[in-house]
Amino acid sequence: MFYRSSAVTPVFVQKIEDVIMNVTIADVPEEDTVIWRFNKTVNLVRFLPGNLGTKVTDDYSGRIELLEKYSVKLKNLQEADSGVYTVVVSGDKEKQITGYKITVQDPVSPVKLSVDSVSSSSDWCNLTVSCRAQDSHINSTFRCLNHTCSQEGGERPQVTPSAADLHVYLATGSIICNHSNQVSWKKDMKTITNVCPRHAGPESVSAGLSVCLLKTAVFSVGLIIMVAALITVHLMEKLKKHE
């Protein structure tokens, strides 16, 4: 009997979550046993030949759910569950059918983006920010000129001691601090308009123009009322003289 072996598939799982490991095996001889193994030595479950049923290893009792065919669900994964899981058909010889390389990760810690310094003039605005996670931090500088902002310098994205990626960057008018791994992500952000109000882009120019027009209109209405009042007083005085 010939079984086609497939490569080991990498899978990342968040701690305490479950993972489904699928396998399809056709035409298994009645005398053969199908076995799921962990790191080539620990048997998780054995599908016994004939009609003898299944045997789950005591250490995995309650954590293994048997699915359709020979697929399984492993529940409540912990860091110690990281490793290679393979399924083999055991008869005269053992043949590996498929495998999964499972990596269990904690969710990343929250991040905090803070503005360390700001310097500006009527034409430009420079700022330095810090992006901090639980076990690492990076700094970066940004420059806004004529309503266009760019990232000028700072540390490149780095891998933290917890094997997560810490990254600070500019997107859609905001500075974003992102902390992520293969199973989770957290972010914090600052809007450029709140940090460099004079260099916030066309939106702020339009808003400023609207405020200016409103002030002009209010002033004009007030002036008209004052002139009308003066004319009214002048006419009343003339009428009194003619009486």
Give keywords.
CD2/SLAM_rcpt, 2 domains, Immunoglobulin-like, four-stranded antiparallel sheet, alpha+beta, 17 strands, 243 residues, single chain
Cα Rg: 35 Å
Task: Summarize the main sheet.
Answer: 6 strands, mixed
Amino-to-carboxy terminus distance: 128 Å
The name of the CATH architecture of the largest domain is: Sandwich
Topology readout:
Elements (H helix, E strand, L loop, with lengths): L7 E7 L4 E3 L11 E6 L3 E6 L6 E3 L7 E3 L5 E3 L8 E8 L3 E12 L6 E9 L3 E9 L4 E9 L2 E7 L3 E2 L5 E7 L2 E7 L4 E7 H4 L6 H41 L1
Parallel strand pairs: 1-9
Antiparallel strand pairs: 2-7, 3-4, 3-8, 4-5, 6-7, 8-9, 10-11, 11-12, 12-13, 14-15, 15-16, 16-17
Structure notes:
Keywords: Glycoprotein, Membrane, Signal, Transmembrane, Transmembrane helix. This protein is α+β, with helices and mostly antiparallel strands and 243 residues long. It has 2 domains: 8-105, Immunoglobulin-like, CATH 2.60.40; 112-199, no CATH class. It is built from 2 helices and 17 strands. It has helices at 192-195, 202-242; strands at 8-14, 19-21, 33-38, 42-47, 54-56, 64-66, 72-74, 83-90, 94-105, 112-120, 124-132, 137-145, 148-154, 158-159, 165-171, 174-180, 185-191. The strands form 4 sheets. It has a 6-stranded mixed beta sheet, with no helix packed on it. Strand 4 (42-47) and strand 5 form a beta hairpin. The radius of gyration is 35 Å and the shape is rod-shaped. The protein starts with 7 loop residues before the first strand and ends with a helix. Residues 202-219 have low confidence and may be disordered.
